[in-house]
Write a structure and sequence with these properties.
One of its GO terms (cellular component) is outer membrane-bounded periplasmic space. By secondary structure, the protein is α/β, with parallel strands linked by helices. It is built from 14 helices and 14 strands. It has a 5-stranded parallel sheet. Strands 12-11-10-13-14 form a 5-stranded mixed sheet. A two-stranded antiparallel ribbon has the order 1-2. The N terminus is likely disordered.
Amino acid sequence: MFKQLIAVGILTLTGLTATLAQETRSFTDDAGRTVEIPTKPLCIVSLQDLAITVPLLELGVTPVGSHGRTTAEGQPFIRSSDVLTGIDFDNSDIKFVGNLPADVEAVAALEPDLILTTPWQTAPVEQLAAIAPTVVLDDGARGDLGMHDILAELTGTEDKLAVLKARYEGQIAQIKRLIDTANISVNVIQGVDGQVAVWHTYGALGKVLRDAGFTFPDRVNAIKGGDPERLSGEALPELDADFVFATYRTDTLETPADAKKFLEEVLPNFCEYLHACRENQLIIVPREEASASSYYGLGVLSYMIISQISGRDFVPMQR
């Protein structure tokens, strides 16, 4: 252990020396900490795969190391990245630095000039800050796509972000042109441990639906903040809509049948209590695209909504 601490200390000094040689600027992070960071970081370690690594890759920035998950066989992966960016540990130079907590020694070994973390990551900030300038970004407070804005500022990729935003604006305009969104109600639900979870805005899918102008149930509009409400099966009629979306996890090899199974655990024969399900207007989609902080995901979802709803004869719910 003593030798390991010495090794980390040597790597820390190396990293700090490299950072001091760079031009820096002051930045106040979401934890209220003022940090001197490189104006042009070259070796970034990301300690949240969904909230930081995937957005960085979409902005054209490849971190030297990333937090990740592991399969049952112990194989590390960057959650959702294979379907959203095509990049993962096995086909890139990105090094796996652990999950929760991240391996501080593995981070130090990469000699980063900037470490990006979130309140969700349990690796101690003070230990990370001893290796390199460390910025805490609260993805919960910033919102899913809000992380792209601050990451573009930190990495000088605002031009790339502008292109991604312009493409998304075009996709939303396309939905509005093809679908009378103002007169169609929608919702996104999920069965979790015998309860139905519902969000005011469910990740990327919720953003597309709201930006396109669809209406939501009053019970959903009343939800405050980004966390879900968990309700009993009795609340299902209040969550009903013309179209209801549910999701399933592809990274754990779930299928649409699992999404239905989890809703059955909320209320047996749940379909009888939802107009959308009775009329075959329950749409089940992969969670990786539906919940990710990804402009590619927004595009996939925009196309999915057009293909599922535009030009379709459907049964409106009684208002």
